Amino acid sequence: MEKEEVLKVYRHSLAHIMAKAVIEIFGKEVQYAIGPEIEDGCYYDFILPRAVTEEDFPAIEEKMHEIIKRREDWTRKELSRDEALEIFKGQKFKTELIQDLPEGEVISTYNTGDDFIDLCRGPHVDNSQELFSAAFKIKNVSGAYWRGDEKRDQLQRIYLFAFPSKDELKAHLAWLKEAQERDHKKIGTQLDLFMFRETAPGMAYWLPRGWVLYQELMKYSREIQLKHGYTEISAPLINNKKLWLISGHWAHYQNNMFIVPGITKGVNACAAVESDETAEKYSVDAEDTMAAKPMNCPNAMMSYKRTMHSYKELPIRYSEYDVLHRKEKSGQMNGLFRVQEFRQDDDHTFVTPDQIKDEIKDVIAIADEIYKTFGITYRAEFSTRPEDYMGDLESWNAAEAALKEILDEKYGDGNYEINEGDGAFYGPKIDLQIKDALGREWQCGTVQLDFQLPHNFELTFVDKDGSQKMPIVIHRAIFGSFERFIGIITEHFKGSFPFWLNPYQVAVVPIRPEHNDYAQKVVSELTAAGVRVEADYTDVNMRDKIKKFKQMKDPYILVVGDKEAAENTVAVNVRGSNKQVPGVALDKFVELCKKLNAERTLELPQEM
Question: pTM for this one?
C-alpha cells in the first residue's frame, strides 16, 4: 500500500478511536454522525450532552491512548439493510445514512473491540496496536450542520491532527504556528494596510499605507508591460445584459454576477434579476438590465471591434486594470485570498495563428522577470482540450502543439504537469503555480488561448491576401488578482516587504524637538529623491518613536541629533537588525535608497 493510502487508513481509523473515546466519556446517549479523514487528520461529528471545550481535549486524547493500548481487533462485517437498521436503532444519523443507501449497495460495519461499532466502508487497521506509533492532537471543536444544511441538526465537530510519528506531528504544528504568524489578515491589521467591514462583504477597504503598496505593485506591472509593447485601456464597470449574452457569461456565469435590475412594467422589483425566468416573472425590461463586470474580456472584444484591423497591426495587446466584481458565498470568502471586488493585471492580446508561439514565449519571459523580483519560484501546468470544447479540432491541435513546444523549450520535456482535458472550453491554457515561503502553491499566472469570444463577437482582421480572418485571443495575467497576490506576498514576506514595495521606506526620528529642523531637511532630500518617508516630530521619548516605526516594519529608521546635524549624517537602524549604523553621510544614504528603488532589490542591505 502506498504511503498516502496508509496515512488515510491511519487517520480514518483514528476517527473511529476518537468517536469511541467520546462515547466512553460522555455516555451511550451520544449521537455520532460521520468521521472522515481530511488533509492533516480527521474529524467526527456528534450531538453531545453538553458543549465540548478545550478543557476536555486532554481527557479525550488520554482516553484515545488508553483505547489504543487495549490492542483491540477491528472486525469488518457485511449486513443486510434490516440488520444494519437494527444495530443502529436509536442512532438517528446512522439510520438516515442506511435508509438513503441505494438498493444493492453493500452495507458494512467495523467493530473496534466488542463495545463499539460504526457504519463504514473502510478500510481500517486490523488491530489498534498498529496505531501505537501514530501521533495525534485535538485541533479544535466547531459547529457543523448535518449534511451541510443549516435547517438540519447542529452538531459539534471535533477536529484531530493525526500523523504517523511524533516528529511529523511536531513539524506540522510548527508549520501551523508559522502560518498563523504570517496570516495576512492579522498582519494587514497590524500594519494598517486594509480592513473589511460587514457593510461591504468581501470587498477590501484599502487604507493609506496599503494603497501605497497596491499602487507600487500596479506601477511595477505597468512598467514591465510598457517595455513589452502593451497598451492600456479602461472600460465601463457596468454593462448591459446584451453584452453578457453575446459573451456567454449570462448563460454560464450569471450566478456569480452582481445584477442591476432593469425598469419594471408596472412592478417595482428591487431584487436582483438572476435568470431569464426571473426577469419574466417580475416583468423586467431586459433592455435595461445591467451587470457589474466579473471579467474584462467582453469589453476588450468591444474595444477591438470598433474598427477594421490589418494583419500588420497584430499583435494588439489590451492591458486593463479595472475593478471587477464576482459574487461569492459568504463561507468561501477569505481575507484577500477570496474577495468579491478586485483588480487583475489583465490583458487580452489579439494574434494571428503564427504569432501564438512568440507571444506566449514573451508572456513567460514577463512571468520570469516578475516572479524573480519577489524571489518566488513557480512551476507550469498545461491543460488540454476538454470534452465540451468549442471551435474546430484543427485549431485546437495547432494551439496545443504550440503551447507544448513552448513548454518543452522552456522547461524541458516532462518537467511540467499536463492536465488532460482540463482546458477551458474556449481554448488550452498554461497555469503558473507559484510557491511561497511556507511551501504552499498558489495559481496566479495564466495564459489562455481563446477561439470562442472572437467568434461570438465576430472579430476579424484583413490578412495578407485581402481576405478576412478571425484573430485568436490570448488571455493573460501574471499577478492574477492584485488582492490575492498582496495576500500571498504579505504572508511570504511576513509583512517585511522589499524596500521598493514597502508603504513607507524610511522613518526619521529626531532625538529632541531642537533636532526637528535637521530632520525636516533629511525628509525633504529623501522625498525629492522619490523615497517614501514618515517622521515623528513630537516631543516623545526617542525609544518610543523607534519602537512605533519598528512595529510598522519600516526598512530603515534614521535617528538624528546634534552630531548628525553638525556632520550632515544619519544614524541608521536596519529592519531585522538590533544594531545601529552611525555616521552615514546623508547623500550616500539617499543614493542607496535610489538604487534600491531603481533595481527593485529583494534584499535589504545591512551595511551602509
Answer: 0.85
Q: Write the pLDDT tens digit of every residue in 470-527.
A: 999 999 999 999 999 999 999 999 999 999 999 999 999 999 999 999 999 999 999 9
* Helix 482-492 × helix 208-227 angle, to 10°: 110
Q: Are residues 310 and 374 in the same domain?
A: yes
φ and ψ at residue 343, rounded to 5 degrees: -120, 155
User: Do 470 and 538 fall into the same domain?
Assistant: no
Q: CB of 427 within 8 A of CB of 450?
A: yes
Q: Count Cβ neighbours within 10 Å for each residue of 436-463 and write b for 16 or more, e otherwise.
A: bbeeeebebbbbbbbbbbbebbebbbee
As a whole number of angstroms, the distance between CA 230 and CA 528 comes to 30
With contact defined as beta carbons under 8 Å apart, do 288 and 317 qualify? no
Rounded to whole angstroms, the Cα distance separating 443 from 383 reads 13
Q: Which positions are annotated as active-site residues?
A: 297, 326, 344, 346, 348, 429, 475
Looking at the structure of the chain, the number of domains it has is 3
The three cell numbers locating residue 26? 460522555
Nearest-angstrom CA–CA distance, 567 and 563: 6
The band of 393, judged by pLDDT with boundaries at 50, 70 and 90, is confident
Please tell me whether residue 584 adopts helix, strand or coil conformation: strand
Locate the DSSP E strands across 384-520. Answer: 417-419, 429-435, 441-450, 461-462, 468-469, 472-477, 506-510
425 in a structural domain: yes
Query: Is 470 part of a structural domain of the chain?
Result: yes
Q: 260: which residues sit within 8 A by CB, 6+ positions away?
A: 238, 272, 289, 290, 291, 292
Can you give the residue range of the structural domain that contains 568? 506-599
Tell me the helices (H) and strands (E) count for the chain, helix number first: 19, 30
CATH number of the domain where residue 514 is located: 3.40.50.800
464 exposed, middle or buried (CB, 10 Å; 0-12, 13-18, 19+)? exposed
H or E stretch covering 347? strand 346-351
601: DSSP letter: -
